[in-house]
């Protein structure tokens, strides 16, 4: 172990108290690391308190039963700290992380196989929206179970639709409609020869760049930029084949990123960069969608919370993201991932940790935490009370997307961080017009394949 890793481990242990499981005759204590803060952290505390209360009630009802008490610790950068703590043999008992990290954790030997626990508890794949259960499966073993699920969809500003003469209750269903409507909602401040200014709509290729300044855009593929690697899926593409081949430069992906590049070409690189430099933080009223600078964005089910907090008077809608007109069968496609619960390898109390996970996966626990975060449940059955009391009028739409066959998630590979970094470099060069989509994606595919092949060889050696 190098000096830096050792220092990180010591700091993590001291600051976060991961020497869990101090037991007494009256209670079995376990530590739960969770990345959430704000309203998401409140949801975690709510379910922890409910579990602890149930345990005390069980102890009263069953003489001799020693209750489990969960202590939640908020941990930033959990993706790194969990690996450091596990490598040092001093992990928390249970942890909340992201579904996309499960393959890498599993390949590093950092997780406990949950298969025997779910079998003993009678938990089945059919108890869940199966897509979310499958997110925790890697190489035929179950490493994680979902805590809160999510899907992404188009969000639009109804006021800006109305001002542009569009029906605010009718979102675009095709990429072609999205492009046409985005142009109508793009506005510039144009400087006239006499020095006066006026506002005009459209892309205005006839006006020199020095004489116009972007005020509002209908859509930007780079906003928020969290899923820039996914655009190919909306055009019928994939990033990695089932047998581990890089598909980054497939015709579908090239078409998708030609579409991405078209927005830079229409707006102008300098104008777009200046416009984006004025965006505020995501979780603030200066968020470009919340402040009315962008009329349409792709965002997740969690966006309801930020609209209510930062722009409560906003008139908005949500619907499946548009797809190309020549691929209507793709309509409803969405990326759907989840926050998940795992038991790290060498957890001091894995059985007690799974008791907590089992409570979260119950209808009571799942609906409690998902309602607090204003998401939908990952369970196959949801109570009528949950639906009727949910404040997001689009919640059933978000919940329906992961049940469709075209749903997708981050490809399952232990080198996803490396592979996605190559895609990110390609997307940057495409959006900046420094390379054509084919040039950039050819390079990403080649470099990504090197990482995939190296990982495949490593896995094969480990299995010998």
Characterization of the model:
The chain has two domains: 3-150 and 339-403, Periplasmic binding protein-like II (D-Maltodextrin-Binding Protein, domain 2); 152-335 and 414-456, D-Maltodextrin-Binding Protein, domain 2, CATH 3.40.190.10. It is 41% helix and 16% strand. The chain contains 17 helices and twelve strands. Strands 1, 2, 3, 6, 7, 8, 9, 10, 11 and 12 form a ten-stranded mixed β-sheet that branches. A two-stranded antiparallel sheet has the order 4-5. α2 runs antiparallel to α13. The longest helix has 27 residues, at 437-463.
Q: What topology does this entry show?
A:
Elements: H1 3-16, E1 28-34, H2 38-61, E2 68-74, H3 78-87, E3 94-98, H4 102-107, H5 115-121, H6 130-134, E4 137-138, E5 141-142, E6 145-157, H7 158-163, H8 175-184, E7 187-191, E8 197-201, E9 212-219, H9 251-267, H10 269-277, E10 294-300, H11 303-310, E11 316-319, E12 336-342, H12 350-360, H13 363-372, H14 384-389, H15 395-400, H16 416-431, H17 437-463
Parallel strand pairs: 1-2, 1-3, 9-10
Antiparallel strand pairs: 3-12, 4-5, 6-10, 6-11, 6-12, 7-8, 7-9
From the structure above, extract its key features.
alpha+beta; 464 residues; ten-stranded mixed β-sheet; single chain; 12 strands; D-Maltodextrin-Binding Protein, domain 2
Shape: globular
Got a strand count? 12
Q: How is the CATH topology of the largest domain named?
A: D-Maltodextrin-Binding Protein, domain 2
Determine the structural class based on helices, strands and strand pairing. Answer: alpha+beta
Query: Which oligomeric state applies?
Result: single chain
Helix segment tally: 17
Order of helices and strands: HEHEHEHHHEEEHHEEEHHEHEEHHHHHH
Q: How far from one another are the termini?
A: 25 Å
Radius of gyration: 24 Å
Shape-level CATH architecture of the largest domain: 3-Layer(aba) Sandwich
For the record, the CATH class of the largest domain is Alpha Beta
CATH superfamily of the largest domain: Periplasmic binding protein-like II
């Amino acid at each position: 172990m190098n000096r830096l890793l050792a220092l990180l481990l010591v700091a993590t242990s001291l600051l976060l108290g991961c020497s869990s499981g101090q037991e007494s005759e009256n209670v079995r204590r376990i530590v739960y690391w969770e990345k959430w803060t704000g309203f998401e952290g409140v949801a975690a505390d709510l379910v922890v308190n409910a579990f602890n209360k149930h345990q005390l009630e069980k102890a009263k009802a069953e003489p001799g039963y020693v209750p489990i008490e969960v202590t939640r610790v908020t941990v930033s950068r959990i993706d790194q700290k969990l690996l450091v703590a596990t490598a040092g043999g001093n992990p928390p008992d249970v942890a909340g992380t992201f579904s996309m990290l499960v393959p890498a954790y599993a390949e590093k030997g950092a997780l406990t196989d949950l298969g025997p626990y779910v079998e003993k508890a009678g938990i089945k794949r059919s108890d869940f929206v199966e897509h979310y259960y499958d997110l925790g499966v890697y190489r035929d073993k179950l490493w994680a179970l979902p805590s809160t699920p999510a899907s992404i969809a188009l969000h639009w500003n109804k006021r800006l639709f109305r001002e542009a003469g569009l029906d605010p209750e009718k979102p675009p269903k095709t990429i072609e409609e999205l492009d046409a409507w985005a142009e109508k909602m793009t506005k510039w401040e144009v400087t006239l020869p006499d020095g006066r200014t006026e506002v005009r709509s459209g892309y205005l290729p006839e006006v020199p760049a020095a004489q116009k300044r972007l005020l509002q855009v209908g859509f930007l593929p780079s906003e928020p930029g969290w899923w820039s690697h996914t655009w190919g899926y909306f055009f019928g593409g994939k990033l990695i084949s089932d047998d581990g081949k890089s598909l980054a430069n497939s015709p579908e992906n090239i078409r998708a990123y030609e579409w991405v590049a078209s927005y830079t070409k229409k707006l102008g690189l300098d104008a777009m960069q200046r416009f984006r430099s004025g965006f505020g933080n995501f979780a603030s009223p200066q968020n470009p969608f919340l402040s009315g600078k962008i009329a349409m964005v792709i965002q997740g089910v969690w966006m309801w919370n930020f609209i209510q907090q930062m722009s409560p008077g906003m008139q908005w809608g949500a619907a499946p993201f548009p797809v190309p007109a020549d691929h209507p069968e793709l309509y409803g496609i969405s990326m759907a991932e989840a926050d998940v619960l795992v038991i790290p390898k060498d957890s001091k109390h894995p059985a007690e940790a799974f008791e907590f996970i089992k409570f979260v996966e119950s209808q009571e626990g799942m609906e409690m935490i998902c309602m607090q975060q204003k998401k939908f449940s990952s369970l196959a059955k949801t109570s009528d009370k949950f639906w009727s009391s949910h404040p997001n009028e689009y919640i059933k739409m978000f919940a329906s997307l992961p049940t469709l066959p075209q749903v997708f998630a981050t490809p399952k590979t232990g080198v996803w961080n490396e592979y996605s970094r190559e895609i990110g470099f390609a997307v940057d060069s495409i959006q900046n017009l420094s390379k054509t989509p084919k040039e950039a994606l050819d390079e990403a595919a080649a470099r990504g394949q090197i990482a995939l092949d190296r990982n495949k060889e490593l896995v094969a050696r480990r299995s010998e």
